[in-house]
From TrEMBL:
Organism: Litchfieldella qijiaojingensis
CDD domains: YkuD_like
Lineage: Bacteria, Pseudomonadati, Pseudomonadota, Gammaproteobacteria, Oceanospirillales
Positions of the catalytic residues: 131, 147
Protein name: Peptidase
Source superkingdom: Bacteria
InterPro entries (alphabetical): LD-transpeptidase, LD_TPept_cat_dom, Transpep_catalytic_dom
């Protein structure tokens, strides 16, 4: 899929994602029509672009890569690779320090040079994802390390729609 230019956003006839940090929700749009809405959890440290900030970056992005197709829900990822583990409470108890990345990864790349692309403000180099999270983690409140967390069921639905190249607008 071709990466959209900023002049083409939002698309008028294709799927795109809106992430509203203020409302802690993700909306799937088809052109100008909202199709579905999901609760999210974004960066506990708020919104921001800088490397190491723990903040969720703003602006226009696109899905750079979709990782995990065909793997079972609860698959644990480290470094964007499945570990062979499936998340459960015993695993969580054995590794309480982990920031769990589960089920699927939609890896974001910024479209705005100098804002969310390039230098120490590069969303892709910051490894900013939409990803699954354990069922006990809160939704609707900012609690992540900068990524956008979703429940597995929501992520699986979005994953099937948001193929690589899909635009994603993140705002407050």
């Amino acid at each position: 899929m071709r990466t959209p230019s900023l002049a083409e956003l939002p698309p008028h006839d294709a799927i795109w994602l809106e992430v509203d940090l203020g409302l802690q929700r993700l909306v799937v749009w088809r052109g100008e029509e909202a199709e579905k809405e999901y609760a999210i959890s974004s960066g506990r440290a708020g919104a921001g672009q800088r490397q190491g900030s723990g903040q969720t970056p703003l602006g226009w992005h696109y899905v750079r890569a979709a990782i995990g197709d065909g793997l079972p829900p609860g698959t644990v990822f480290r470094g964007r690779r499945p570990t062979g583990e499936i998340f459960d409470q015993a695993l969580a108890s054995a590794h309480p320090e982990r920031d769990w990345i589960l089920t699927r990864i939609l890896w974001l790349c910024g479209l705005e040079r100098g804002f969310n692309r390039g230098g120490d403000r590069d969303s892709q180099r910051r490894y900013i994802y939409l990803h699954g999270t354990p069922p006990g983690e809160p939704m609707g409140t900012a609690a992540s390390h900068g990524c956008i967390r979703l429940r597995d069921a929501a992520l699986l639905e979005i994953f099937d729609l948001a193929v690589p190249g899909t635009p994603v607008w993140v705002h407050e």
